[in-house]
Amino acid sequence: MIFERILRWLYPPKCVLCGKVLAEEETDFCSCCRIDAPVCPVDHRKKLPFLDSWLGVWYYEDSVRRSLLRYKFHGVQSYAKPYGQMLAMKLQQNHPDGFDLLTWVPISALRKFTRGYDQVELLASAVGAELEMEAIPLLTKVRHNRPQSGITGDAQRRANVLGAYRVTDPELLKDKKILLLDDIITTGATVSECARMLLTAGAKEVHCGAVAIARRKKRSR
Fold first, then answer.
1. CATH number of domain containing 124
2. Could you tell me which of 154, 117, 131 has the C-alpha nearest to residue 209?
């Protein structure tokens, strides 16, 4: 107990989203972020190609965006667990019947080597721990394409990921209900392409979960 107090004094835990030092009774997220973070509602009317459903915990903006950038590009791998807990909770609320298999959108071998880790694989392991499922690599990335974040336009993003993924074991996913995870969904081009490959290989359904969803701007007439 004394050692934990000293450790907390030397290295005070900070909010995963805003980065402020947490109060002693707070865990992972400060009370303000738990209330004010831009929660993404589940709208079953919004469809993405090849996906039976999709959802996210928050909108990809403000403190959520800065948090994910720290996680993705600055080595803050410890965020995977709290992200995973929040995402798993939302998945359980919306899919009480669960899933047959859990997998994730993989990054390329080159990107994993330069970054040192696959941030979505870490997320999948954290979600799996909450759902009592093993995260299985059903997909592999066979083409090192340009990052989606640097491309504008839905058509261009779809073209950029076309043929970039391959199913590792078609027999494993035949007639299965798949949970596919990603960290961020912007236009949905990447998760749609992954879902297309899984369905083509024999999956029965593909549902997607992400930490954050980019809010689509209304087009002006």
1. 3.40.50.2020
2. 131
Q: What's the rounded Cα separation, in Å, for the pair 117 and 106?
A: 11
Residue 181, in any domain of the structure:
yes
In a domain? residue 14: no
- The CA–CA distances, whole Å, from 142 to 41, 108, 182, 211 equal 34, 7, 17, 24
Task: Look at the chain and count its residues.
Answer: 221
Instruction: Give domain status of residue 126, yes or no.
Output: yes
User: Which DSSP state fits 41?
Assistant: -
- Residue corresponding to tokens 């080595």: 75
Q: Closest Cα partner for 18 from 40, 47, 38?
A: 38
Which residue reads 């939302």 in tokens?
A: 90
Range of the domain at 141: 38-213
* Count: domains in the chain: 1
pLDDT tens readout for residues 106-150 = 999 999 999 999 999 999 999 999 999 999 999 999 876 666 666
